[in-house]
Design brief:
10-stranded mixed sheet; Immunoglobulin-like; Jelly Rolls; globular; mainly beta
Length: 626
C-alpha cells in the first residue's frame, strides 16, 4: 500500500524546492554540518561562521570585494554590486565576498540556493583552500591548492555566454605552482548541467555537489543528478586531498565583457545576488551520535599536526608538543616552567560556552582560563590549582559579552610547574536547534520479509528526521491484529539502513502486512509524523517462497570461523550481519556459493542475524557465537 498520491506529489515538490543530499549508503545517514550551514534568517552575518572578506585577495580588477556590499535581510544573505564614486586604484566598481572562517570542510554534500544578479558579474558558490607545500617533490618552493567551483552563474542577459545563465556551470582546479615558478598552472576538469527550469537571475535555483573523496565529485542542480567528475590527475593521483573553506562571491571575469554599465550597477532591481540558504552535510554511521569535531572551532586542538599550528603563547622553548604521554592519538601539548599555550577563537556574543581539556599535571599546579582578546583582557572564566596526576577532563564555563574574539590559555605560573594538555574543545552550552531542513518521512527500500525459519523480520528502509526520533515497526495479520512491534532509534538526519529484528516466535500461515512509522522520541500513536505500509505478504507453513534461497552455516554455534554455503547462485552474494539490537556490525561479499567468515571481530556469547542478498533473492539465518 502506498502513501496518498497527493502527499507523494507534495513531497516531490518539496524536494525540488529544498533539494537534499542524495540517498546515503546503507548503514549511514547524512547529518547537517552546522559550521557550514546557514538559513540567513537573522539581521547580521554570523561571525562564528563567516566573514565579509576574502583573505589575501581583494577581488579581480575592476571589481573589488567591498565588505559593505554584504547584508543579511528578509531571509537572504545579499551581495549588492555597485559603482565607486572615486576609483580605488584599479578598482572602479565593487562586488562582495562571504567566506567561512574555518578551512575544515571535507568530504560530504554541499548545497546552496540563490538567485543571481542580472549584470555581467558572477554569482558563485565554491570551496577552496590555502596554498601548501607540495610534499611529493623534494623542492621547497612548489605549492598547491584546490578549488571546487560548485557553480558559477552569470545573469548578464547579453548573449556572450548563455550557458552561464541557463545551466549550472561547474569546474574543479588543482592549482600548482611548479618548483622555482611564480605563477600557477591549473589542472582542471569541468562540467555543466542540463538546462535549468529558468535562467539563473529569474528565480532561485539549488546547486549542490557530493565531494566523494580525493578523486571524484558528483554535481546536482535543483535536486537533479548531474555529472560525476573524476578530478584531473595529471600532476597528482589524489588531487583533492585536503579540507577547504567555503566561498559565496560576486566578481567580474575578464572574459565576461563588456563590464556592467554605470546604469546597471546603480539599478537595485538587477544588481544584487540573493542567497536564500547554504547547507552542508556529513555522512555518519546510522546509530552513531553526530561527531563533535574539534576542527569545527579548534583546528589542531588535539595537536595531531605534531606542532603548534594555530597556537600562540609565551614562555619560549618550554612550550612544546610531545609524543611522550598523549591522552589520545600521538601528540599532546607539554609545558614545563612559567609560560602558557594560548589560542584565539571567534565566538558568538552574549553566549555561554564550555571550554574542555584533558590535563595531566606532573608537578606543581596549572590554570585553565578564558579572557577577552582585547586591551582590557577581561577574564571570562578560569579554574586555578589544577593538580590531578592522571588525565582528567577539566571544564571551564564562561559567557561572552559584546567582544567576540576570546583567548583561552593553559598556564603554568612557576618554574616548578609541568603538565600535559590534550583534546581542547569549545562547545556552546545550549546550542539552538538546527534548522528543519528535511520533510520528515519514512519509506521502505524494498518489500520487508518475514521468516519463520529464523523468526525474523527483515526491513530495508530510509527516513528523514530533523530531530532524534523513534522508528516503530509493526506486523499485522489479515484481521488487522498486531502480532509484533518493536522500536529502534531514528537519529537526526537522512538515514538508510537494513535491519533484521527477532520476532521471538513463529507466525501462523497466512497474510501479513508490515507497517513502519516515525514519531517523536517516546511519542504516542497520535504523534506519528509519517507512516508506510508494505504490500500484503503471504507466509506459508515454512516460509516465504518467492525470491528466497537457502543457506547453510557450519558450525553454528561457532567461535572463530563459520562456513557459509549456498547453492545455485550466480555472481556476488552480499552478506550483512546484525546484532540483536538490529545494528549492522559486519558487511562483506563472496562468490562461488561459499565463504569462510572470520568472526574474531564479533563479541562472543552473542546471537546475530545474517542477511544474504544475491540479485533479487534474499536469505536470513541466525548465528550464535560461543
Amino acid at each position: 500500500m502506498k502513501k496518498p498520491l497527493l502527499l507523494l506529489l507534495f513531497i516531490a515538490f518539496s524536494t525540488l524546492v529544498n533539494a537534499q543530499p542524495p540517498e546515503p549508503p546503507t548503514g549511514f545517514r547524512w547529518v547537517l554540518y552546522e559550521q557550514y550551514s546557514d538559513e540567513f534568517n537573522g539581521v547580521l552575518l554570523d561571525v562564528t561562521k563567516w566573514k565579509n572578506s576574502f583573505t589575501n585577495w581583494q577581488g579581480r580588477v575592476p571589481a573589488k570585494f567591498e565588505p559593505t556590499a554584504v547584508s543579511v535581510q528578509r531571509g537572504n544573505m545579499q551581495i549588492k554590486s555597485g559603482k565607486y564614486g572615486t576609483p580605488q586604484g584599479a578598482y572602479t566598481m565593487y562586488g562582495g565576498a562571504v567566506t567561512s572562517i574555518k578551512e575544515t570542510a571535507y568530504y560530504g554534500y554541499y548545497e546552496c540556493r540563490f538567485k543571481s544578479s542580472k549584470i555581467a558579474m558572477s554569482t558563485t558558490f565554491w570551496l577552496s583552500n590555502s596554498k601548501q607545500d607540495y610534499t611529493p617533490t623534494g623542492c621547497t618552493t612548489d605549492k598547491y591548492s584546490q578549488e571546487l567551483d560548485i557553480v558559477e552563474a552569470a545573469g548578464d542577459t547579453r548573449n556572450t555566454f548563455p550557458s552561464f545563465r541557463q545551466k549550472m556551470k561547474s569546474n574543479t582546479h588543482h592549482r600548482y605552482i611548479p618548483c622555482g615558478a611564480s605563477s600557477e598552472t591549473f589542472y582542471s576538469k569541468g562540467t555543466d548541467s542540463a538546462l535549468l527550469g529558468s535562467e539563473v537571475w529569474e528565480d532561485y535555483h539549488t546547486y549542490g555537489v557530493q565531494w566523494h573523496d580525493a578523486k571524484s565529485a558528483t554535481f546536482y542542480s535543483d535536486g537533479r543528478l548531474g555529472e560525476n567528475i573524476l578530478f584531473n590527475t595529471t600532476i597528482d593521483a589524489n588531487p583533492f586531498d585536503r579540507p577547504m573553506f567555503m566561498a559565496m562571491v560576486t566578481e567580474t571575469y575578464n572574459w565576461l565583457t563588456p563590464y556592467p554599465t554605470d546604469a546597471e550597477l546603480n539599478n537595485n532591481a538587477i544588481n544584487t545576488a540573493y542567497y536564500d540558504w547554504v547547507r552542508s552535510y556529513r555522512l555518519v554511521p546510522i546509530f552513531d551520535p553526530e561527531p563533535v569535531n574539534a576542527a569545527d572551532g579548534l583546528e589542531n586542538a588535539d595537536f595531531e599536526y605534531g606542532d603548534l599550528t594555530n597556537w600562540t603563547g609565551w614562555g619560549g622553548t618550554i612550550r612544546t608538543v610531545s609524543t611522550t604521554d598523549p591522552y589520545q592519538g600521538s601528540y599532546a601539548a607539554h609545558i614545563k616552567g612559567a609560560g602558557a599555550h594560548e589560542r584565539i577563537v571567534t565566538l558568538k556574543p552574549n553566549t555561554t560556552y564550555l571550554l574542555k581539556s584533558y590535563i595531566k599535571v606532573l608537578g606543581g599546579k596549572m590554570i585553565l582560563g578564558v579572557k577577552e582578546n582585547n586591551m582590557a583582557e577581561t577574564i571570562l572564566g578560569v579554574i586555578n590549582n589544577i593538580s590531578n596526576a592522571t588525565y582528567q577532563q577539566t571544564t571551564v564555563e564562561f559567557t561572552t559579552g559584546a567582544e567576540t574574539s576570546v583567548k583561552f590559555y593553559f598556564y603554568a605560573q612557576t618554574t616548578s610547574d609541568e603538565a600535559y594538555g590534550d583534546n581542547f574543545e569549545i562547545v556552546e552550552k545550549n546550542p539552538p536547534a538546527k534548522a528543519p531542513v528535511f520533510t520528515e518521512d519514512i519509506n521502505f527500500n524494498s518489500e520487508p520479509t518475514l521468516s519463520n525459519a529464523t523468526q525474523t523480520l527483515t526491513v530495508s528502509y530510509n527516513y528523514k528526521a530533523n530531530l532524534n526520533r523513534d522508528i516503530k515497526f509493526h506486523v499485522f495479520d489479515s484481521g488487522n491484529n498486531e502480532v509484533y512491534t518493536t522500536t529502534i532509534n531514528g537519529l537526526e538526519g537522512y538515514g538508510n539502513h537494513n535491519v533484521s529484528l527477532s520476532l521471538g516466535s513463529t507466525l501462523s500461515s497466512g497474510d501479513y502486512t508490515v507497517v513502519a512509522d516515525i514519531r517523536p522520541e517516546g511519542g504516542s500513536d497520535a504523534q506519528i509524523i509519517d507512516t508506510i505500509t508494505s504490500s500484503q505478504l503471504t507466509l506459508s507453513s515454512t516460509d516465504f517462497k518467492k525470491n528466497v534461497f537457502s543457506i547453510e552455516l557450519y558450525p553454528n554455534p561457532a567461535s572463530d570461523l563459520v562456513q557459509i554455503k549456498t547453492e545455485g547462485l550466480k555472481g556476488k552474494t552480499e552478506v550483512e550481519i546484525f546484532n540483536i539490537l538490529g545494528r549492522l556490525v559486519m558487511k562483506t561479499e563472496f562468490e562461488n556459493n561459499q565463504l569462510d567468515l572470520d568472526l574474531n571481530s564479533l563479541s562472543s556469547s552473542s546471537m546475530y542475524f545474517l542477511i544474504l542478498r544475491n540479485n533479487e533473492k534474499t536469505a536470513t539465518n541466525k548465528l550464535v557465537i560461543k
